Queue: 3 jobs
Job 1
Amino acid sequence: MRVFRGDLRHDVDRLAFGPGVRLAASAVRSNQVDVWDAVTGIQADAWSARGCEVTDLGFLPTGQVLVCVTGHPLQVIDPEAERYGLIFPGAESKSLDSAVLVATGGDRVFVLHAQRRPFVGDFTLAAWKPVAGGKYKVEWQVGIDQTVAGIAASEHGLVAVATQSTSRWRSRVRSDLILYDAATGVERAKITERAITWGRADRLRFFPDGERVLALASGIVHVWETARGNHLGQFPARLGSELLTDVAVHPSGKVLFTSGEDHRARLWDATTFTELTAWEWSIEKLHSIAVSADGALAAVGGETGRIVVWDLDL
C-alpha cells in the first residue's frame, strides 16, 4: 500500500489509470490535475486549470491525459513532452467549446460539450476520431436537450449517456440511460427509470464485455443488460447515511470496487452483488476509485489530496 499526496489540497473526486502504471487525479475545488507513476509514487506532472473548474479526465491510448475544463475545449496533457495544448479544436463549432465529460472507447474519444452551464441545459455529444498529425476530428455529433449526469464508452461499439428530465410542474422526474452506436451516433436503445434520480455527474461504467452497464445514482449502484435493458440488480441493499461515492469494474468483469463516505473501499461480486471484502485507511472519506487495465492495481482518492494505491491479488 502506498499513499501519495501531490499538489492537490482538496477532495480527490476524479481518478483514472492510463497505459502502464500511469495514474491521473484531480480535485474540482483545486482546479488541479496530478499525474503519477502508480508503482514508484513519482509525480510525473502537475497541471493547473488557472481558475476554471476541472470536471472530468481520462487517458488516450498514447498516455496523454484528457482534461475537461469548463468553458474550454478538451485539454490534453502530455507528461512525456511536458506539453499542453489542443488536439480537439473547438473552433469547428461553438457548440464544442465547453467540454464537461469525457470517455474513450476503441480509437474514439467521446466528449459531452455544454452549450450553457455545465450539467444544466443543452448539450452536444461528439465523437472524435484520430486523423493525420496526431489531431482529432469530429466524426459525428448529436444534440441532447436534457440534463446529463454521466457518459461511458465500451470497447464493443456503444456509448451510454445518463439523462434526466423534469415535467413542466416539476412533479415527475424521468431518468433515461441512452445507448448510442459508437460509429454512427444512432440511438440504439433507451432505458427509462422513473424510480432513479441521477445526481450531478454520477458515475457510469460498462463491463468489459459490453453486455452490461452500471450507474452509481444517489449512492446506489444499478446494473442493466445492454441488449434488452433489463435491470439486473442493485447494491447496497440498504442505504445508510454514508453513501457510495464511486464505482469501478475489474477488467475480468467478475468483481466491482466502490469507494464510500464511510472511509472504506469495498469489493463486490459482480453477479450476486454481495460484498466480498473491505479496506480502510486513515484518509477519511473516499471520493473516487479506479482499477488499472491489467487488474493489478487499485487506487482511491480521499480528502485533502491524499491517494492510496494498493496491489490486487484476485
Job 2
Amino acid sequence: MTQDIGAQLAEIVEAAGAVILPLWRTGLTVDTKTDQSPVTEADRRGEILILERLAKAFPDIPVIAEEASSADGVPLSIAKRFFLVDPLDGTKAFVRGDAHFTVNIGLIEDGVPVAGAVHAPATGETWFTAPGGALKRQLGEGGGAAVHVRPRGETVLALTSHTLKPEQYESLQAQYGITDRQPMDSSVKLCIIAEGGADIYPRHGPTMEWDIAAGHAVLTAAGGSLTTPEGQPFVYGKAAEGFRNGWFVARGGRGRPSPLAGEGGRRRRTDEGSRRPVR
C-alpha cells in the first residue's frame, strides 16, 4: 500500500533533522535566493541527505526539491507520481532561533498527497502517514501513537503566519468563525491541527507545493482536510504555475476521533517559542 511509505519517509526526515539540528542557533550565514527568501547551509545539507536516501529507496520516483528547484529551476512537466521535498520549512524561524521549523517529504499521486512525513528537529517530534491513519512519535521511539483531528467546538483556534496583518486577521475571523489565534511558522501548523491541537489554518497568501504537501498528507490521514477557500480539491503537480500554490484553508473537526487516538494524541495550545502548553 502507498501509505506504508510514510514510515520510510519518517526515517529519512529524522535523519535529515540530525544533520540540520547541530547548525541551529550557531549564527549560520544566511544567503538570499532569487525569490528573496532565505537559505542556509542547513537547508542545503538536509536536502542532499534526503535526495540521496530517496534515490536509494525509491529510484523510480522523481523528486521536486526546494533548493534544487531554486538553483536549477522547476521542471516544465512532472510524472503522475512524484515526491515533494522541503528540507527546512521555516528557515526564518530557524535563523531567529525559534523551534518552529520542519523537514518535509510528501508523495503525490495524480495530484493528491497520499503519503508524507514531517519532522520538527528542535522538539524531536515526527508526524507521518500510516495505513488507516496518521501517527506521531518522539525521536528515538519506535512505531508511533495514532493522532486525529478534534471536533470543532465553540472556541475555534486558528494557527496563522507571523506576517498576518491585523486587518487580514479580522477578515479571516469573519470568514471562518475564528475566536483565537496563535502565530506560528512552518508546516508544523498542519501537524498540530492533525493531532487535535488547533482547528484551522487559513492561508490567503503565497506558498509552494513542497511547503505543505507532507503536512497535507498527514492532516488528511488524521481526518482533516485542506481545500481551496471555496471548498474545492487542492491539487499538486502544477508545473505550468511553477509549482506555486493558490490560497487554501486547512481544517480539523470533520469526523469523529479515531478509537486509536487517545489523549496522548491531542495537543493543548502551545507557547510559540517553547512549544510548552499554555495554561
Job 3
Amino acid sequence: MKKYIAILIMFAFTMPAMAEENQRSIDKLREARQELKDAKQEARKEVKEIRKETRQDVRTNAEAIKKEVKMNREEAKKDLKAKLLKIKDVKKKKIVEKLGTDITELNKRITDQYLKNLGKMTEILNRINSRADNAISKGIDVIAVKDAIVKAESSITSTTELINAQATKGYSFDLADESNLKAKVGEARQAFRDDLKTVQKAMSDSREAVRAAAKALAGTPRIKEIPEIMPAATTTNTVNQ
C-alpha cells in the first residue's frame, strides 16, 4: 500500500512537469509552422513583385521594339525604292517592289501571331504556377512542377526575344546587276524561309515546355485536391496551336 501511495505522490509531482514540457514542445512546433507559413507567404510576395516588374519590363521593351520595327520597315521601303530606280524594265520593277512588300507584310503577320500565341502560352503557364503555389500551401510536393515551369518560362523568354528580333528584320535585294535579278530575289526569299524555320522551331520548343509543365502538374500526387484555375472568358488554350 505504501508503495502505491509513493507512486501516486511521484506522479503527482512529475505529471505537471511532463505536461509543461509537452506544452513547450507543442508551442515550439506551432511557432515553427507559423514561421514556415510566414516564409512561404513572403516568398510568394517577392515572386509576385518580380513578375510584376518583369511584365512591366516586357511591356516597355515591346513598345521600344514596335518603334524599332516601324523605323526599320520605313527604312527598308526607302532603300527598296532607291534601288528600284536602277531597274529600267518597268515590269521587273513592279514585280520586285511587290515581292519586297509581300515579304515585309508576311513577316509582320507571322511574328505578330507568334507573339500572341506566346502570350497565351504564358497565361496557361501562370495558371499552372498558381495551382502549384496553392498545392504547396497544402503540403503537396511540386518541386518537379516548379522545375518544369522555370524551364518553360526560360523557353518562352528566349523565343520572344528571337521573334522580336525577327520582326525587326528587313530583306533587301542586291539590284546592282539587273541581269542577275532573279537569283538575288531568290536568295532573299530563301533567307526569309530559313529565318522562319528557326522561329518555328523555337515556338515548337516553347509549346513542348509548357506541355511538360502541365504534364508534371497532372502527374503530381494529390493534385486533384487543388481546384483548377479557370481562364477568363476571352482566353483560349493554345498549347496545341
